[in-house]
From TrEMBL:
Designated name of the protein: WSC domain-containing protein 1
Family: Belongs to the WSCD family.
InterPro entries the UniProt entry points to: P-loop_NTPase, Sialate-O-sulfotransferase
UniProtKB keywords: Signal
Family matches, as SUPFAM superfamilies: P-loop containing nucleoside triphosphate hydrolases
Signal peptide as annotated in the record: 1-36
């Protein structure tokens, strides 16, 4: 630069001005290029989970405005008055489902889940299904139907854990409307793909909590994961606090968590309004007190509500429903895994899933939330007050400062741990009854 300045000293003033302007423009171009590169890297790796903001441009879907499809205010399709085959195409070329079609899928899901549960309860498998030894993969985009299932929940409801269970049971990577760099580092490489990419079949979303990514634009069915608002808010409060809630001052904890809940409560209500009509509505069950599955009948797309708490209390039966829902909906998908074999895979990977499960970061129960006598203290009372409009005792019992996993009035069923390591030979069935 010094040498350049000396050479410029003898130049006419207009030339000096022109050179200065050119230098300034060059500097601006270099800064813009650097910003563009940073944005590209950020888009690939994803922002932190705490700043989950999907790229709206990546969610645009070409929908013919003349298609005779009606939608509710929450963005979900309404049952057509005529059979789907006569009603026109929906989104990616699939028809809106009729009530009869949804009812038939629900019947198949219930029948398959009960069959899977019966087989697994007959005894430990004789061998490990071959699929369990396969590495995770993406769908073959040259063969797939392109069908996608949403996996929706409020933040703090174990969506990441559920995705790991789906991945274990299907051997397929899951996707997301978010690009979370931390999850990519932990093996959730489907985060890198566009939400419409046919290579992924199950997509994480907070539709209802966030409305910038209406699920009907890219999914054809949905699994709604519901969790106690008390537990979910504590998990999120802890996560946003860097995992150190247990060491926070009592007054700081009260203010931090209750403020967090009060600011998010409206979004949670919206979530229930979309997927369950209302939080305190009738609780429909399918499998007794430990596994509650609501196969909905009110939308023109298959929807199942599963409880996070049930996955902890009775992992085997709850996962049987989860994988049965996917198998029935994906029945036309080439090489879709069998729900029974997928359940064995998920059980065998249980210990690995625990490492990813977010509840490991939650503050421990005890004096933080309850008095020495076991009664809810001021922290629990404040948080319960914040979520009282959403609380349903039929689902979660009284709000008393206890995590749902610590309730003593609910029967818990341990996971099956004696899964054999030997892989089944060609033609050999893992089913002990065969």
């Amino acid at each position: 630069m010094a040498a350049f300045s000396k050479r410029a000293e003898g130049l006419p003033l207009p030339v000096k001005i022109a050179l200065s302007v050119c230098g300034l423009l060059l500097l601006i171009l270099m800064l813009n290029q650097a910003t563009s590169n940073d944005a590209t890297v950020s888009k690939l790796l994803g922002a932190s989970h705490a700043n989950e903001v999907p790229d709206d441009s990546a969610l645009e879907v070409d929908v013919n405005p003349t298609d005779p499809i009606d939608f509710q205010e929450n963005g979900l399709p309404i049952y057509p008055d005529t059979p789907a085959s006569e009603k026109g195409k929906f989104v990616k070329g699939k028809s809106v489902y009729t009530r009869e079609q949804v009812d038939e899928m629900n019947r198949k899901i219930e029948e398959l889940a009960q069959n899977v549960i019966k087989r697994i309860e007959a005894g430990p498998p004789k061998c490990m299904p071959k699929i369990c030894a396969e590495k995770y993969k993406f769908r073959d985009t040259t063969k797939t139907t392109g069908l996608k299932v949403g996996l929706t929940s409020i933040p703090g409801s174990g969506n990441t854990w559920m995705r790991s269970v789906v991945r274990a049971g299907t051997r397929l990577y899951t996707g997301s409307v978010y690009r979370d760099g931390n999850l990519i580092k932990n093996g959730f490489v489907g985060e890198k793909l566009d939400v419409k990419d046919p290579a992924t079949a199950v997509i994480k979303s907070h539709h209802g909590f966030h409305y910038k990514h209406p699920i009907w634009k890219f999914c054809d069915a949905n699994i709604h994961v519901i969790r106690s608002p008390f537990d979910a808010f504590l998990a999120e409060c802890n996560r946003h606090g860097g995992g150190h809630t247990g060491s926070l001052d009592r007054n700081v904890l009260i203010k931090k968590c209750t403020n967090f809940a009060s600011h998010k409560i409206g979004r949670i209500k919206n979530m229930y309004d979309v997927w369950e009509k209302e939080s305190k509505g009738e609780l429909k069950t399918r499998q007794g007190p430990t596994v509650r599955v609501h196969l909905q009948e009110d939308h023109a797309m298959p929807i199942a509500t599963l409880f996070y708490e049930d996955m902890e209390r009775d992992f085997t039966r709850a996962t049987a429903y989860l994988l049965s829902f996917l198998q029935v909906f994906m029945e036309d998908e080439p090489e879709w895994p069998d729900a029974y074999e997928g359940l064995i895979c998920a059980l065998s990977e249980g210990q690995q899933q625990e490492k990813i499960h977010r509840h490991a970061k939650e503050p421990p129960p005890g004096e933080i939330f309850r008095t020495p006598s076991g009664e809810p203290n001021e922290i629990s009372q404040a948080l319960c007050k914040a979520v009282e409009d959403l609380w349903n005792e039929d689902k979660w019992g009284p709000c008393n400062g206890h995590y749902q996993k610590d309730r003593t009035d609910i029967v818990k069923h341990p996971r099956m741990h004696d899964i054999p390591e030997n892989v089944c030979e060609a033609g050999e069935s893992p089913d002990p009854t065969v």
